[in-house]
Design brief:
heterodimer, A: mainly alpha, 7 helices, 1% strand, globular, B: mainly alpha, disordered N terminus
């Protein structure tokens, strides 16, 4: 989708987009979900993953569901593709994996996410910066872990010499 | 190169290099990218890379340009937490990171040209994300190197 916008509204769109796409949009999507679908209520899923890291995959799935059902017309995929240096087709899973990693690592706290609901604009703006940093750090950690797994030598086959 | 006036920076550097400053320029809502803009962006990138344009000077002009835009308060707030720097140094940290990323070739002319448009499309959003990423890593490399240099031998 292409749109012609004025410079001022462009800034607002990008700023809003970063916040909305990376956190608030997900939260709102989760909050707007009926309680009868607990798996898709992202805030509660994140809270659950924070307490039970073993539910990491369920958290990523709920996050992807929220992204897929996000009513926003902002194209998050290209932005995340550039920001996390990942193919556009993988941007949703990369974003969700980073969010969950940040939550599990204790970097992305409930207070961080609550800041997006703050009445103070400055606090919300600060929250966007914090979230972006924590996402990029989480993504780098995951990439490093993947790299280590690839480099780790395979165990010798049974019966093989040496 | 040093003779570039502030207005020139606001018109060219700000739209081309300072993604966030772009939005405050008094340009028509719909404007085709001109050859002049492209040529000046190329010249500025080249100048930064070959040393004929000082990064410190470019960064200072960048900070001044961003500080003048109506959204500077929001940019400062966001960069304070994104780059983990004191509030009063946030714009300088962002601009320093941007210049370092250009010099290191993490940000190229194509990326700058892609965001130097009024049109918001997938390409622009991707390159915008790429710039935010490059600024983060350029800043981190610089602060890590600085901290290591301060360690006792």
């Amino acid at each position: 989708m292409k749109a012609h916008v004025s410079p001022g509204s462009l800034f607002n769109q990008l700023r809003r987009a970063a916040a909305m796409t990376l956190a608030a949009g997900l939260l709102l999507a989760g909050c707007a979900t009926p309680q009868s679908q607990p798996a898709s209520n992202l805030p509660s899923v994140l809270s659950d993953v924070r307490k039970h890291p073993e539910k990491r995959l369920a958290g990523e799935a709920a996050c992807l569901w929220s992204l897929a059902n996000n009513a926003s017309d902002f194209e998050f995929a290209p932005f995340i593709s550039g920001f996390l240096d990942t193919p556009e087709a993988d941007s949703g899973s990369a974003l969700c994996a980073a969010i969950i990693e940040a939550v599990v690592a204790g970097d992305l706290t409930a207070a961080d996410l609550d800041a997006f609901q703050s009445r103070k604009e400055a606090r919300r703006e600060a929250a966007v910066g914090t979230l972006l940093r924590k996402l990029i750090e989480a993504h780098e950690r995951l990439q490093e872990q993947k790299g280590q797994q690839v480099r780790r030598p395979l165990p010798a086959a049974p019966g093989s010499p040496g | 190169m040093r003779g570039l006036r502030i207005n020139s920076w606001r018109r060219c550097i700000a739209p081309g290099l300072l993604v966030l400053a772009l939005m405050a320029l008094p340009v028509p809502a719909v404007k085709a990218q001109s050859d002049l803009d492209s040529a000046e962006i190329r010249l500025l990138v080249e100048g930064l890379r070959n040393g004929t344009l000082s990064s410190a000077y470019a960064s200072a002009e960048c900070s001044r340009g961003v500080a003048e835009i109506p959204e500077s308060k929001a940019v400062r707030q966001l960069m304070t937490t994104y780059l983990e720097v004191p509030h009063e140094l946030a714009l300088a940290a962002f601009c320093d990171g941007l210049m370092r990323a250009i010099v290191a070739r993490d940000i190229g002319v194509d990326t700058l040209l892609a965001v130097n448009r009024e049109e918001v499309d997938a390409t622009m959003l991707r390159e915008f994300g790429r710039i935010l990423r490059a600024v983060y890593f350029a800043h981190r490399r610089a602060t890590t190197a600085s901290a290591e240099a301060r360690l006792p031998q």
